Amino acid sequence: MDCADLDRDVFPQCDDRGRLEGYVVGDHQGHLFVNGPADYRRTLGFFVEAVDEEYSDEFGGAQLQVLGVATCGKGANTSHHLVYLVGLGDPTSTLPADRFLGTYELTKEDGSWAIAATDVGLYTDWQLVLDDPLTQIACGDIQPWVGAAPNLNPPQSESQPTPIPATGST
User: Fold this and answer.
1) Residue 157 DSSP label
2) Domains in the chain and their CATH numbers?
3) CB-based contacts of 18: which residues, under 8 Å, 6+ apart?
4) How many other CB atoms are found less than 10 A from the CB of residue 27?
5) pTM, two decimal places
6) CB neighbours (10 Å) of residue 85?
7) Distance, CA of 144 to CA of 84 (rounded, Å)
8) Do 121 and 102 touch, CB atoms closer than 8 A?
9) What tens digit of pLDDT does each residue of 105-158 get?
10) How, if at all, do strands 65-72 and 79-88 pair?
11) ∠ Cα 86 90 11 (to 5°)
């Protein structure tokens, strides 16, 4: 990305560079940072390694939950935002885990789909900028993901497992 074409308030790395190469990572305030390939792999790796299996809250357990997809823009400017929740904790820290809300923005570039940006932050941080982050993140209008939890709001007790559907034989 050529810094001459970018807003320096949104891409502060352009203050000391003429060009940014890599992968865009954003936060709840719209700040964007471009990670090089190795740093981006470490960022994505953290989202897997830092899942705290013991974490739970009103949304359920720690495992990544795909909530749905928001389609933004029109025509050549269309992007699809895969919206997810995950419970993360730093394995090297004594601080407790917390709920994160994020999106992967998918765009079509040269005929192939690519992740154009990754936005992620604490769910509580998203609540500071959006009245209802679960319905307003990305451009809103989040369509439920097939197979997503039908109701995230009543907490599910770990002691009450989800029933296994009947197979039709008795």
Assistant:
1) P
2) 3-144 (3.10.450)
3) 2, 3, 4
4) 16
5) 0.76
6) 22
7) 11
8) yes
9) 998 888 888 888 889 999 999 999 999 999 999 988 898 877 655 444 333 333
10) antiparallel
11) 75
What's the rounded Cα separation, in Å, for the pair 66 and 2? Answer: 33
Q: Which residues are CB-contacts of 80 (< 8 A; sequence separation ≥ 6)? A: 69, 70, 71, 72, 105, 106, 107
DSSP 59-113: TEESS-EEEEEEEES-GGG-EEEEEEEEEE--TT-SSPPEEEEEEEEEEEETTEE
In terms of phi and psi (left: phi > 0; alpha: psi -120 to 50; beta: otherwise), the region of 128 is alpha
Looking at residue 168, the DSSP 8-state letter turns out to be S
CA distance 148 to 86: 13
Report the distance separating Cα 45 and Cα 15, nearest Å.
28
Residue 82 identity: L
Between CA 81 and CA 118 the distance in angstroms is 9
Neighbours of 14 (CB within 10 A): 20
pLDDT in tens, 13-71: 888 888 888 888 888 888 888 998 899 888 888 888 889 988 999 998 888 889 999 99
Output phi, psi for 3, to 5 deg.
Answer: -60, -25
